Every structure is written in structure tokens, then in C-alpha cells.
Amino acid sequence: MNGAKDWENSIVAFLVGKKLPGKNVKQLLERKWGRVGSLTIHLAGNGVFLIRFENLQARDWVLDNGPWDVWGYHLAVRPWCRGMSLTLGECKSMPVWVKLRGVPIQFWNKVGLSYIASVLGKPLHMDTPTMNRFALLFAWVCVDMNATSSFPECITLELEDGSTTSIEVEYPWRPAACTLCKVFDHSNRSCPRVTRREWMPRPVVMAQKRPEDAQG
Domain named DUF4283: which ranges (predicted)? Predict the structure, then answer.
């Protein structure tokens, strides 16, 4: 079976936090991404889209120029691979863009930034300004983070001389995650596995008159 070759230039896009009409989402993505190359968009599930690009360059442009959204709702994108689940409810990890502030100059390269970002998860890619070092105020890195992550806001980095420095971590978007199911489909609060205590009204006892209070 060589069908996988037909999808080697594809990405999977998960619309997180809101279910929108598939037709409208497809039209918007075609306008956003169609200018970099020919593509076809296939609805793969509720809020899940499989996008096949004409060439690898167009696919990589989409991956490198996130984060993306649809009408304000986050669109998580990742390269398609054989055996990959197309169900958001089974996603135990999610690509998340993070902003790293205070990175020492000597770490400002692909190896150094990947080393720092690996504390958060698996580094996937960086945006073009970060790779070209247009500005050194902060670095944008896309990291595949687990649903069990605590999303730390600071990373302690040990330097060559034994001293340490702090790297600030910002998350423009944080997906809802359930640490019980270890997936990104829902939060702990809405987890179906949580036993909820149903509210029961307290019994109301009506005051009774004493016999001596009765008239007549």
C-alpha cells in the first residue's frame, strides 16, 4: 500500500475550543493559505481538518508562520504522519507556540533554543524572524506539549560557568487539558470521569403549632 505517499505534504489542523461549520472554516483557510500554494482541505472529524498541499514548501510555510486562529479560536497544526490519530479526544500532546524571553546570546541558534524549549516538551520549529535573528528580544518556538504539562512560566538555565539565569515563558494560548484522561479534548472541570455530587435540597420542616396555641 503506497497511499501514504499521497499525503506526505499534508498537515492536520485541530480547531480547539469551538466547533464551527466545516464549510466556513474551509473557505477561510483557503483564503489564508491558498496564496502560498495549491491545497485541498478535507473534513476529517468534528473540528479536525486534513490539508494536503501541492508541495512541501507550502506546507512548511504554514507550519513556520503560526500561531493560527479561526475567528479568534486557536487552530493547532501539525505535520501528518502515518498512523496519526485524527481525533482531538485522543490527543495526548498538542503543538503550542511559546515566547521565550531573556535567552542568552550564545543560545540564540537552533540547537540552543531547542535545548531550552525541550524542558517544556518536544521542540518542533521556530518562526522565520527567530531563525534569522531579526530581533533578540524574544524567541518564538513551537513545542509539542503533553496534556499533563504544568505549563511553567519560567525555565532555569545553567550556563557554562556554573551560574544560572531565568528564561521567561509566555503562552499566547493555552489549551484546556484534562490531567485525569491526559488529553486536550476537555478540562478537569468537564471531565466525564469525575464523580459529581448532585445537589439535593435540604428537607424543610414546617413549624407546627403547639396544642396550647390552637384557638377554640
Answer: 4-82
Q: Do residue 56 and residue 97 come from a single domain?
A: no
Cα 130 to Cα 109: distance, rounded to the nearest angstrom: 9
Residues 103 and 184 both lie in one domain? yes
What residues make up the domain containing 19?
A: 3-85
DSSP summary character for residue 25: H
The pLDDT tens digits of the residues spanning 134-172 come to 889 999 999 988 888 889 999 999 999 999 999 999 998
Q: Strands (DSSP E) along 92-153, which ranges?
A: 93-101, 122-126, 138-146
Per DSSP bridges, beta strands 48-53 and 68-70 are: unpaired
Q: Is residue 214 part of a domain?
A: no
DSSP track, 63-75 = HHT--EEETTEEE
Nearest to 117 by CA among 145, 83, 84, 88: 145
Cβ 45 vs Cβ 91: under 8 Å:
no
The three cell numbers of residue 69 are 486562529
42 with 123, same domain?
Answer: no
| pTM of the entire predicted model | 0.67
- What does the pLDDT look like over 12-67, one tens digit per residue? 998 876 778 888 999 999 999 998 999 999 998 888 899 999 999 999 999 888 78
